[in-house]
Amino acid sequence: MSSDQGANQATEKLEEVQLRLFVSGATPRSLRAIAAIHNLCETRLAGRYRFEVVDAYQHPEAAREAGVVALPTLLQLAPGPKRLFIGDLSDTAPIKAGLGLAG
Q: Which neighbouring-strand residues pair with 84?
């Protein structure tokens, strides 16, 4: 088996990363967070992620159920354990580290 085939098989065995981003409408800060997380997913998790955006103003019950107290907030739902990232999400370095994608 070639090293490319081995790498592909290893990637296929990795669990899908499930992320949910809570934002506050179409504000510039929300749009930056959405773009940054989407770009991170496409470059570091291509083909093995699910990314959902929830507007906390339109769906306050979802934010309340998730325990969101500040916006934007990114939740890693899977694989466990659940992780929470709050604040300026345009700096993805802490997110990469928290998701194990640094390096």
A: 75
> Could you read off the pLDDT of 7-59 as tens digits, one per residue?
444 444 578 999 999 999 999 999 999 999 999 999 999 999 999 999 999 99
In whole angstroms, give the CA distance from residue 21 to residue 76: 9
Four-way CATH pick for 15-98: 3.50.50.60, 3.40.30.10, 3.30.70.1350, 3.40.50.1240: 3.40.30.10
Q: What is the pLDDT of residues 71-91, one digit of tens each?
A: 999 999 999 899 999 998 999
Q: What is the pTM of this model?
A: 0.84
Beta bridge partners of 49: 17
Q: How far is CA 59 from CA 15, 22, 26, 68, in A?
A: 28, 10, 14, 12
